[in-house]
Amino acid sequence: MNPAVELINVCMTFQNREILQHINLVIPEGQRMALTGPSGAGKSTILKIIAGLITPTSGRIIRHSRKIGYVFQEPRLLPWETALKNVIFPLLARGERQHHASEAGRECLAKMGLSGFEQHYPDQLSGGMKQRVSIARALVIEPDLLLLDEPFTGLDPNLRDSICHHMESALSQKTTTLIHVTHDAEGMIHTADTLYTLTAPDTLHALPRRIPSAAPEGVTATGPTALPRPG
Ligand SMILES: Nc1ncnc2c1ncn2[C@@H]1O[C@H](COP(=O)(O)OP(=O)(O)OP(=O)(O)O)[C@@H](O)[C@H]1O
């Protein structure tokens, strides 16, 4: 299978603290990967490096995906724009026509249970609603690569399951590679193929549900371990 993302010997140091050391990882196209680990282990840092938001101190990152959707831990919406305008922002930035963008944006908001809230501003929405707007914004571009940084924190379990369901149906129409950072393996999107645990610098362990033919260099495959499948 073609790789979606390759991390080659990636190291990250913040203020003389080594957060990531020599991470080697190939994420195949279409793989659903969950990334867990304690607070401060460097999970968000890996996502930001993959998205190109920060540059590693050393090493290389090769992105084969062109359209990257990112759901941050906190919603990060533009406060002066409506929910709909926040969602369609990445489409307009790509040159999509207003009419088509609005149609796609409304559809995505509806899938997130937010029909009727298109013209609301972020400060008129609850925390969970804002997070759903940010998920819609990531999905509206029909990403090749979707990066989720604990997007369900603070959402009640029923809402989380409903959003997972809508996300699954949105993703099932194409081969999207998914990297989902989560503290809660049970709360992750149901179909993770592989679980990676980042425990401390240079210790990225893979607990694969499907054993890869060869574990990527620098990654310890200690599976197979069946992950709980919610529902
Ligand atoms: N821009 C930065 N400048 C300095 N230190 C940083 C920066 N970004 C992250 N760090 C530090 O790097 C470490 C890893 O942060 P990161 O956010 O990647 O952890 P995490 O595993 O995602 O944690 P959490 O589960 O709490 O979100 C932390 O100690 C954090 O303080």
List keywords for this structure.
231 residues; alpha/beta; 3-stranded antiparallel sheet; 10 strands; globular; binds adenosine-5'-triphosphate; ATP-binding cassette domain-containing protein
Q: In terms of topology, how is this protein built?
A:
Layout: E1 3-14, E2 17-28, E3 32-36, H1 43-51, E4 58-63, E5 68-71, H2 83-93, H3 98-111, H4 127-139, E6 145-149, H5 157-172, E7 177-181, E8 194-198, E9 204-208, E10 220-221
Parallel strand pairs: 3-7, 3-8, 5-6, 6-7, 9-10
Antiparallel strand pairs: 1-2, 1-4, 8-9
Helix pairs in contact: 2-3, 2-4, 3-4
Condensed summary:
The protein is an alpha/beta fold and 231 residues long. The chain has helices spanning 43-51, 83-93, 98-111, 127-139, 157-172, and strands at 3-14, 17-28, 32-36, 58-63, 68-71, 145-149, 177-181, 194-198, 204-208, 220-221.
Can you characterise this structure?
InterPro entries: AAA+_ATPase, ABC_transporter-like_ATP-bd, ABC_transporter-like_CS, ABC_transporter_ATP-bind, P-loop_NTPase. One of its GO terms (molecular function) is ATP binding. Residues 5-225 form the ABC transporter domain. This protein has 231 residues and is an alpha/beta fold. 27% of the residues lie in helices and 26% in strands. The chain has five helices and ten strands; from the N terminus they run βββαββαααβαββββ. The strands form two sheets. A seven-stranded mixed β-sheet has the order 5-6-7-3-8-9-10. Strand 6 (145-149), helix 5 (157-172) and strand 7 form a beta-alpha-beta unit. Helix 3 (98-111) packs across helix 4 (127-139). The protein is globular, with a radius of gyration of 18 Å. The protein binds adenosine-5'-triphosphate. Adenosine-5'-triphosphate binds next to helix 1.
